[in-house]
Amino acid sequence: MTVTITAFERSPDGGKGLARDTRVRWALEEVGQPYQVRLVSFRAMKQPAHLALHPFGSIPTYEEGDLALFESGAIVFHIAELHTGLLPDDPNARARAITWMFAALNTVEPPILELATARLLEGDKPWSKERLPLVEERVRGRLKQLSARLGNADWLDGAFSAGDLMMVSVLLRLRSSGILDEFPNLSAYVARGEARPAYKRAFAAQWAINSAPPTG
Length: 216
Ligand SMILES: N[C@@H](CCC(=O)N[C@@H](CS)C(=O)NCC(=O)O)C(=O)O
Fold this sequence. Notes:
Blueprint: E1 3-8, H1 21-31, E2 36-40, H2 42-45, H3 48-51, E3 61-64, E4 67-70, H4 72-82, H5 91-120, H6 128-150, H7 162-172, H8 184-194, H9 197-210
Parallel strand pairs: 1-2
Antiparallel strand pairs: 1-3, 3-4
Bound molecules: glutathione (GSH).
């Protein structure tokens, strides 16, 4: 089975692994599924060929035979369903792991993305200074709840699962803000995720592309 994903020809984060192809690469590495990568430019992402795969003109996409998927959550879920290793066999534990995937994408990621938008895209607006603390507080509120639930556990619900893969991926985007360090157990949780050999391979693969000097 040949799997092809798409990734930025050059990620705006310069290889910090924050682009969402990294979570897909990580899932593929966890289950031992080899994959190919098609790199796309921002321009190509908005052209019909890519829009046929991704209606919103973003990355990542995933192709496997005649199946084409978009949305990193749906892709990671598909990989986890297809292979063993990312979702528990027990039906209840499996449902809980899937719940954590949704929680990562639906409940934790939105305020984190809002913070990124406030910092990167709205920093020059006259109201930005007043708004930023409000956005940061919303992130802290979510992290406080997540931190309380994680407690001293290694992972969110028993063994490492696709729920953790998604949650760690989402939290990683916070590192540069310093807010993650206010929650030592979450900081350690993210570090545990990054220490996994599969994450390291995924990170290295995207780093190799994004850290290379520009050509031409
Ligand atoms: N909800 C989507 C978001 C996809 C997304 O925003 N991808 C970013 C990269 S991380 C992107 O392609 N941005 C450029 C663009 O949309 O033009 C997912 O999880 O896959």
